[in-house]
Amino acid sequence: MTDYRLVYYSANRLNGTAEQKEADIDTILARSRRNNDSVGVTGALTFSDGYFAQVLEGPQGAVEVTFERIQQDGRHSDVHLLEFVPIADRTFSNWSMAYVGKAVEGSKLAGLGATTGFDPAKISGQQLFERLRDLLLAEQAVA
Amino acid sequence: MQYALAQQSYSPDLVDQQQTGIVLLDHAGTVLFANSAAETLLLGQGCQNHPLAAALEGAERLGLLHPHSSGRILAAVAGDRELQFRRRDEHTLRLTMGPGLGGTRLLEIADVSKVVETILSQSLDPLTGLANRVGLLAQLAMDYAPGQEPTGALLYIDIDRFKGVNDTLGHPVGDRLLKLVAERMANVISADDMLVRLGGDEFAILLKASAIVPAAEALARRLVDLLGRPYLVAGHMIHIGASVGIALASGDGQTPEDLIRSADLALFNAKSEGRGTFRFFNPSMADALQQRRALEIDMRRALALKEFSLVYQAQYAADRSRLVGFEALLRWNHETRGAVSPAEFIPLAEEIGLMTTLGEWVLRTACMEAAKWPKGMSVAVNISPVQFRSTALVAVVASALAASGLPPEQLELEITEGALLNNTAQVMDIFTQLKALGVRFAMDDFGTGYSSLSYLQKFPFDKIKIDQSFVRTMPDSHDSAAIVRAISALGTSLGMTTVAEGVETEDQLMRVARDGCMHVQGYLTGRPVTADLATQLALATIGEEND
Ligand SMILES: Cc1cc2nc3c(=O)[nH]c(=O)nc-3n(C[C@H](O)[C@H](O)[C@H](O)COP(=O)(O)O)c2cc1C
Questions:
Q1: How far is the C-alpha of B5 from the C-alpha of B85, rounded, in Å?
Q2: Looking at the predicted complex, does its ipTM rise above 0.85?
Q3: What is the pLDDT of residues B15-56, one digit of tens each?
Q4: Which CATH fold topology does B12-115 show?
Q5: What is the structure's pLDDT at A115?
Q6: Which of B202, B211, B362, B451 has the fewest CB atoms within 10 Å, counting from its CB?
């Protein structure tokens, strides 16, 4: 069955201190990994001051159901769906949900905006996907 | 209208007669006798010779009845009224009062839960599993039962652009989308609320909350946001929106029908104010709708009564040396309303599907008139985006030309960018076919919309009409002057004639001429005049040239 790739960005609505946000992200990642594993979805997530950006890959139905759940999550809003296309190969097949930005100077949040920063008004789904992929590869190289 | 629950005549096999509770009361409301069914259903044991009120309060205290139920029941008994209500365990009871022997009164208690369930099962929407209209009416009938004080709010929700999804992606996708919509709504309401699919892409929520106005507003906001987020169905990304109308049971409806009408009106208002929004009902909405309906009726009559007419505004060469043609403008003079502004009736005509007929009349009339003018003098006719959506326009134009004998190159169709926005392949097709007839095209109101250069490139217009807002502000605004210059230059290089609209002063005329604009139209060079005057003017012009 053909896999699909979905790319979106959204306004993050996390509140609280940097530590609290970090904890929230951990919760989201833990849930995502467990859920995604069970339906064969993989992907990557990043977080900057104002935004989330995420790539989901997997069977069409599984991606649709997962996205519908994410969509209704109050921890973000203004979800902009950039791309939903069939793909030949998965890029993040090793990650049920990779988190991009961990390697940034010991802290998950410091300077992340600058590192992963993107101008959502201009970026295309393809570009956002490539950005996440490259950042992840760079982090792999560092680790 | 029939309310299933309120007026259902209970079929005997659904109500166990053996289980009917019988209570005899004296004039003071003391229980003289209660059978065991009455005790089991409502009163509890040992109620004999005690006031009914005491037994009911006991049942309330023990948790068999909802708080405040005893008061409602006593009021119904005292008023000899029938009452249907739900016990805490969801059983539904119906109480009926009647005269007993020797001045006593007889209270019958029936457990009608099965009836209610059966009816409810007929009141479900098969696609979403939600209650349907019948279910909503049944619930409202209970809320509005005698002795009840209806509270809460009714929200009517309409999905914007749903039809487009059905048309382009098919019904199976449309159905799956509706399920997702229902799911999103179900996730944001609470257990006391009722979610209903009214049919098609219309839903309703019967909201129960204590501070109802802020609660309804918060829910409406939430729905507009949540339902407007993108959907994925069968590999398609789908964007739709939602409009919401709200009516309050406490004030916007004396009856279920009233409440529904109010919610529907509020929804209608939300939709006409641009969709993707919500509105609370207010009584003036009914007036506004009334007025709109009246205008609609008058407009449908106006064609037959010949209340529409055309006036013609002259277009001159910018140096005023020559009259080049006229723009035909639609007027409606109603016998009691007087002159109705096109800004008021054109949008309504488009909405109620009258624009095509009206537009055809304009085309035929303008062509007939212009056929009397000298060769080379053009008549410009405005074509609404609605007309431009149908290929029928090509046949209508061809027939108007044939019937009048007007040479095609003297007919100029004015369209705005809005007409070209959607459905480009079909629009292109219509444009090309009309061009092939030999008629000319003018781009109207240029500079106000997207002013997309790609349209000018893709559609070979003959003329660009520079919007009057630039011409008006020209003496004071450098920007406007620069825009007029730029459009004129653009026109020249693309081989299109430019026309400045709304020229009112000598100063403006001098400036547009200096900035390269070729033709002018406006109050300075001529107000709109009747057909007869226009024709006289046209014929006089040729006379002058012959001199
Ligand atoms: C930015 C963002 C990304 C998320 N990504 C995923 C994801 O990839 N997979 C997932 O199952 N849940 C994801 N979630 C969480 C879901 O919205 C939802 O809370 C979760 O799936 C509920 O799972 P549970 O029912 O197991 O608690 C994400 C939430 C946010 C805010």
A1: 11
A2: no
A3: 556 688 999 999 889 999 999 999 989 998 888 899 999 999
A4: Beta-Lactamase (3.30.450)
A5: 44
A6: B211
From ligand 1's centre to the CA of A117, what distance in Å? 22
* Banded pLDDT at B425 (limits 50, 70, 90): confident
d(CA B16, CA B449): 71
CATH number of B124-282: 3.30.70.270
Distance A86 CA to ligand 1 centre (A): 22
* Unique residue bearing structure tokens 């409440």: B259
Distance A61 CA to ligand 1 centre (A): 16
Which residue has the least CA distance to atom 2 on ligand 1? A70
Q: Is the pLDDT of residue B7 over 60?
A: no
Domain regions of chain B by residue span: 12-115, 124-282, 292-546
Q: Verify whether the Cβ–Cβ distance A84 to B232 is below 8 Å.
A: yes
Q: Which residues line ligand 1 (CB under 6 A)?
A: A 28, 31-32, 35-36, 45, 52, 54, 66, 69-70, 73, 75-76, 97
Q: Which tokens belong to B180?
A: 């997702």
Q: How far apart are CA B313 and CA B167, in angstroms?
A: 42
All structural domains of chain A: 3-142 (3.30.70.100)
At B196-236, the pLDDT tens digits run 999 999 999 999 988 999 999 999 999 999 999 999 999 99
CATH topology of domain B292-546: TIM Barrel (3.20.20)
Distance CA B270, CA B199 (A): 19
**Which among A7, A68, A70, A76 is the top mutation candidate for probing chain B, defined by the most B β-carbons within 10 Å of its own β-carbon?**
A68
pTM exceeding 0.80: no
Asked whether the beta carbons of residue A84 and residue B237 sit closer than 8 angstroms, the reply is yes
**Token code pair at residue B269:** 């208002």
Tell me which residue of B152, B184, B368 sits closest to B263, measured CA to CA: B152
Going by CA atoms, what residue is nearest to atom 14 of ligand 1?
A70
Q: Residue A68 is nearest to which of B180, B225, B235, comparing CB atoms?
A: B180
Q: If 0-12 CB within 10 Å is exposed, 13-18 middle and 19+ buried, where does residue B391 land?
A: exposed
Low-confidence ranges of chain A (pLDDT < 70): 102-122, 142-143
